[in-house]
Amino acid sequence: GFIASGADILDVGGESTRPGSAPVNAEDEMERVVPVIHALKKNFPDILISIDTYKARVAEEAISAGAQIVNDVWGLRADPLLAGVAAKHKTPVILMHNVREKLGNAYIGSEYQNLIEDVKRELLECVALAKNAGVAESHIVLDPGIGFGKTREHNLELINRLGEIRSMGYPILLGTSRKSFIGFTLELPHDQRVEGTAATIAVGITRGADIIRVHDVKEMARVAKMTDAIVRNA
User: Fold this and answer.
1) Annotated active-site positions, please?
2) How far is CA 18 from CA 5, 104, 179, 187, 191, in A?
């Protein structure tokens, strides 16, 4: 399905990242993802697989099973050992901007002093964690964390100003697909956000996104191909 529709990378995750979702322990997470990765590698040996986890143990097992990329929604800040796992296996890492408790004070979306500068600064903290552990600079991808601890207005601004994140010099992954800020903007439920998602992807690629994370692969692969033809002569 996804592969035939044009997917280049399959992102495998065993724990929901939606707000309010229950945490999953490492054993349960491994039971969910490792068999899937084995099956994918057996049936589609050429596809790239990323493991969507913030736990070092899960990443270790997933990489052993065949995953080639680590996608961490906490940007290596949740598990101090994860950066070392990526470095040891020479695995590229996707570092996502996320909000977190800071010195006991809740740091939520409405409290950004300067949205773009705050996001850039905190992404650089994640980059430092990666580099200090031995991850090669060429193996670092940044994700601005659309929809994570950000208001609708923040998400729209981040997409429009994505070029300022891209100018940090790292490839950008953009994950906007079907997210609530699209629903708020268009007043549409989760299953009616394909066109809104397409708009975010077209603008995102225009502003410098290199990888897009989507649900509707066939449609969004076409949007990406058309946008690339216009703005990148690809």
Assistant:
1) 179, 213
2) 25, 22, 10, 20, 16
Using the 8-state DSSP alphabet, how is residue 147 labeled? Answer: T
DSSP label of 84: H
- pTM score: 0.94
CA 46/CA 52 separation, integer angstroms: 19
Q: What is the token pair recorded at 14? A: 């065993």
The pLDDT averaged over each successive group of 10 residues in the chain (234 residues) is: 92 87 92 97 96 98 98 96 98 92 46 92 97 98 95 97 98 98 97 98 98 97 97 86
Q: Name the 3-class secondary structure at 80.
A: coil
Residue 205: closest CA among 225, 182, 190, 180: 225
Contact by Cβ (8 Å): 213, 174: yes
Residue found under tokens 């066109």? 195
Reading the block at residue 71, the tokens are 């996608």
